Amino acid sequence: MSSTDESSSSSEEEVKKTKKEAKVKKSKKDTKSKKPKKEKKNKKKKKDANAPRRYLSPFIFFSKEYRPTIKAENPKATFGEIGALLGKRWETISADDKKRYEKLAQEDKKRWEMEKKVYDENKKNESESESSDSD
């Protein structure tokens, strides 16, 4: 055998080895995918239907007012595009105009705080009455 024959045969052996390694790797991947995965579901707390609705931000008050106008100006706009246009318009309005929406948001936050206080008191009273009933 000449040296070229030896080098070609050794390179052929290397190719065979790499092909075998690739097959082994594939078979390992296949066995991993065949095993059933254990999925853990993070269960969310269900919201209490009697809980007060959260207060709205100034931007939400602005959006409620301007959404019909934007829709009329851009009837073919998608929901996302309308949101983007509202965001751009919100950035362009003056600070004085924003104060009006900030005032509405503050009033809504006060409403929420009062409702939440009443809700928490009622919830506390219910839990106390349930614990005294079980005695």
TrEMBL record:
<feature type="domain" description="HMG box">
    <location>
        <begin position="52"/>
        <end position="120"/>
    </location>
</feature>
<dbReference type="GO" id="GO:0003677">
    <property type="term" value="F:DNA binding"/>
</dbReference>
<feature type="DNA-binding region" description="HMG box">
    <location>
        <begin position="52"/>
        <end position="120"/>
    </location>
</feature>
<feature type="compositionally biased region" description="Basic and acidic residues">
    <location>
        <begin position="112"/>
        <end position="127"/>
    </location>
</feature>
<protein>
    <submittedName>
        <fullName>HMG1/2 box-containing protein</fullName>
    </submittedName>
</protein>
<keyword id="KW-0238">DNA-binding</keyword>
<dbReference type="InterPro" id="IPR036910">
    <property type="entry name" value="HMG_box_dom_sf"/>
</dbReference>
<dbReference type="InterPro" id="IPR050342">
    <property type="entry name" value="HMGB"/>
</dbReference>
<keyword id="KW-0539">Nucleus</keyword>
<dbReference type="GO" id="GO:0005634">
    <property type="term" value="C:nucleus"/>
</dbReference>
<dbReference type="Pfam" id="PF00505">
    <property type="entry name" value="HMG_box"/>
</dbReference>
<feature type="region of interest" description="Disordered">
    <location>
        <begin position="112"/>
        <end position="135"/>
    </location>
</feature>
<dbReference type="InterPro" id="IPR009071">
    <property type="entry name" value="HMG_box_dom"/>
</dbReference>
<feature type="compositionally biased region" description="Basic residues">
    <location>
        <begin position="17"/>
        <end position="47"/>
    </location>
</feature>
<feature type="compositionally biased region" description="Low complexity">
    <location>
        <begin position="1"/>
        <end position="10"/>
    </location>
</feature>
<feature type="region of interest" description="Disordered">
    <location>
        <begin position="1"/>
        <end position="52"/>
    </location>
</feature>
